[in-house]
Amino acid sequence: MLTTRSNRLDPSLIPDDQLAALAKVFAAPDHVALIDAQGNRTLLPEALFTHFARIVRLMSEKKAIVLVPEDEAFTTQAAANYLGVSRQHLVDLLDAGTIPHHKVGTHRRVTFKDLLVYERARDATRRAALDRLAAAAEAAGKYDSDYTGDTK
């Protein structure tokens, strides 16, 4: 199991001027090229460019980044913390089979990938319910979709 400490990219480890220069490079829409010691030039694929640009932007804002592989196993408490639920609620979801898990001895473990799948499904369900509620309120004339918040 990887630790947060070994996966943490701390912006304080990079001098501010270097972070600012990197942020400027990654802010441009063009792709970045890597040049090795022999002068060989390789363009970063778009997917990596996008992620590196976000990492550099967040680090230039003094935010640390933690990388988590999808197959990383979380304890029930860490998984509950990630989802923003109680540990007991998470255990109930595991026992009901809503979220897959495995055991290490007597301890349950949940992969980050399975947490992401559950989180996306939960969020989609919530969004659909809110959309239905807003549509019902609008149909009943109780919702003004043109409301600007101006109380004058």
Report on this structure.
This protein has 152 residues and is an alpha+beta fold. The chain folds into two domains: 4-66, no CATH class; 73-139, Multidrug-efflux Transporter Regulator, Chain: A, Domain 2, CATH 1.10.1660. The chain has six helices and seven strands; from the N terminus they run αβαββαββααββα. It has helices at residues 4-7, 16-27, 46-60, 76-83, 87-95, 112-139; strands spanning 8-9, 33-35, 41-43, 65-66, 73-74, 102-104, 107-111. A three-stranded antiparallel sheet has the order 5-7-6. A two-stranded antiparallel sheet has the order 1-4. Strands 2-3 form a two-stranded antiparallel sheet. β6 and β7 form a beta hairpin. It is flat and about 65 Å long.
State the main characteristics.
152 residues, alpha+beta, Multidrug-efflux Transporter Regulator, Chain: A, Domain 2, three-stranded antiparallel beta sheet, two-stranded antiparallel ribbon, 13% strand
Structural class: alpha+beta
Radius of gyration: 22 Å
What pattern of helices and strands is seen along the backbone? Answer: HEHEEHEEHHEEH
| Largest sheet features | 3 strands, antiparallel
How much of the polypeptide forms β-strand, as a percent range? 5-15%
Average of the residue pLDDT scores: 89
CATH architecture of the largest domain: Orthogonal Bundle
**Top CATH class of the largest domain:** Mainly Alpha
Backbone shape: flat
Whole-Å distance between the termini? Answer: 57 Å
How many strand elements? 7
The CATH topology of the largest domain corresponds to Multidrug-efflux Transporter Regulator, Chain: A, Domain 2
| Strand order across the largest sheet | 5-7-6
Taking pLDDT < 50 over at least 5 consecutive residues as the criterion, the unreliable ranges are none
